[in-house]
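QA checklist item 7 of 12: single-chain prediction sanity check.
[x] sequence parsed
[x] length recorded as 446
[x] structure emitted
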Amino acid sequence: MKNKKNVIYIVSSVVILSAFLMVIVQLNQHSVAKDDQVETVIEHFETVTSVKVNAKEKVSLMKQEDGWHVEGVDRSEDATKINHFLSAMKDMTGDQVSVEKKNVQLNFPKVVVSFSDMDGSVQRLAIGAMDQQGENYYVEHKDNEIIYAVDRAFIESIPLQSHALVDNSILSMPSSAITEIEIDNGTEIIQLRKDSPFSEVESLAHVSGWYVYQPFRSAYSVNFSHAQDILLGIDQLEQVEQVKEPGDYGLENVDFSITFSDGEREERLNIGDPAVNNMYYVQLENSEEIYKILAERLNPFSHRAYEMIDHFVHILSLDVVDQLTIVTKETQVTYTFKHDDDGEEIVTSVFLDGEKQDTENFRNEYKKIAGLSFDRTYDGEIVEEEPEVSIVYQLTDENGQSIENKIDFLNISDKEVAIRKDNNERIDFIMKKEKLDQVIEWALRR
């Protein structure tokens, strides 16, 4: 009897386990059961002469003698966008998977893409849901009745509107031609320029090649990542749609505008009220056309000037410095440098009071000086105190002329010092005193 009970218990456990596994299988129909076969999804793409996207709107492309064209558009086509889409379709690969169509939104797909050739043969792709990992979409080749897991990058290249394949640029100037940008955000006017106010040797450490001239008293190098975002953002200033209905849209008296110049002409983009779907109304100065633009396209131009710049107090490559002097009220120390260029690299020798120093050790310590950074802007009165510390750089520019850069650090409290550059009365920034003290302690220790 005992054995019989054990048998009943074991059988019951197996039944329960089987039922549990069935539930798990049903709950995980979205998971990919791959056949480990990576296949090209569209067969013989080179013979395709027509591509049609059926979504909320219909997008149709036809191959003609001079290339591919979008049907029914009233703006210039963007060949780069068209080629990107077609290349993605040609290169699209996927893993065959075993899933139920109804569980991955393939029974009633919202997007179907058809590929036709000259003989009238058609291949249709239905786009389903994304997998749980957010890496692939489920795609059914309806004519072969095969379902694939396809990398999302391929699928997200599919245009759901003809608008996505035409030139939607608002500006007539590309980023490569622009040399000056002025941003008036209602709080401050930020002037960015591509021309450097410094000599070539002083500019070597300024990676971005762009400078903020206003609202500061001195010019400062634009942070590389911000400069890249701005330049990329210029080319991405594209309209989502043109506004047909007349109205103000907040464009009569704007408090946010961006002016772009190539040195000969300029275009001012006025930003008006927010629009639905996270967009803004915009209009070029002296133009009647009003557009909607995605709010994210304005992000690169929506930072404060302080956020755009490198926060280094004064950064120079050691290989261009001839002499470095650090002065306090009690003492001073002067380092001199000799630079030998053998055609492949510059070999720098360091001297203190005529004695040669270990160059690599000095380089490591010099990084502390070059890495000194300010902490916030200064809006106080002119500081007339004598500097607690001065750092003076002597260098020779590309024309053989001697240049002096002097940085004064002025006490404004027990914890902060103001930074004055080249005897300018006005001060832009302040920094924590402890950071300066650490560097000075090293320099004077020698």
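[x] summary fact logged: Confidence is low (pLDDT under 50) at residues 1-35.
[ ] second reviewer sign-off
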